[in-house]
Amino acid sequence: MKKLIALFAVSALASTSAISAIALSGAASVSYDDNGSAASETTYDADLLVTGTAGSTTVTIGADVDGASFATTSAAMSTTIGPVTVVADMFDEVSKDGAGANAVVTTVGSANISGTAGEQIFESTDTGVTISLDAPIGDATVGVDNSGNVTITGTWSGITMSHTSKSAGDTTTAAGSIAGMDVSVTNKAGATTWSLGTTVSGVALTLASSQKVTATFGLAGNTMVVSSIPKVAAAIQVDGNSAGTGTGGYGTRLQASAAAYSTVAISRSLTSGATLAATYSTSNDSLTLKASVAF
Prior knowledge:
The chain is mainly beta. Helices cover 6% and strands 55% of the residues. It has a domain of 62 residues. The protein has an 18-stranded antiparallel β-barrel. Strands 6-7 form a two-stranded antiparallel sheet. Strand 11 and strand 12 form a beta hairpin. The radius of gyration is 24 Å and the shape is globular. The two termini are 44 Å apart.
């Protein structure tokens, strides 16, 4: 009996130790949108993130819990073995949405597949494993994933650079702060995008190659953000196939054009721990009120 009691005590201690290495965080919000001249609506969102740590191994599991059922949104594991880091993405995200004003229906063969404009028609598998090695090459890190893509990252003279070699086209990024200005440049398969950020007289300004401009006024906990959103050009549907091979790949859905618009968002942290935000958009003359909390 004493051995049984001792065994139970050890089991309880092990369970307590395991629980102490688990961190729970999340966020929740409720939004009311008057939708301009359209009917108003109230939406909800609640998410949980469970993080478990054992030595140099970390597992994270995310979930959306405001729907009719508990829905997994992420699952990943990372571990370090000497100079080698292994990251496994175990969640296969489904990007097709099928809801909202931009929802479209594409007919493929005899099946109708719902989704959101601009997204791919067929779903691709995005689970995978990436192995990285801290190589003594000017503090560079070399990584390779299960698709054969090779990535080299590192920081030199304050500039962080990353280059990924893949069959669909190489991707190179560079980011850093130059004379008080945050600069980021990305070249993907020959197409270059960039963003600039700086602060002038206490106002944080950002400018992107997409022509989007934002200005943030105030201090943390009490801010106003003014944004200018560029117009969206129409894009025809690109047919693809379920295998994702060929010129069209997985295909993309029809994208309707959209006019440029502006938004003004005011956010304030409350003593209750929640954050209250009000956003006005000229796209449909709407006002959205949102109360949120993160823990």
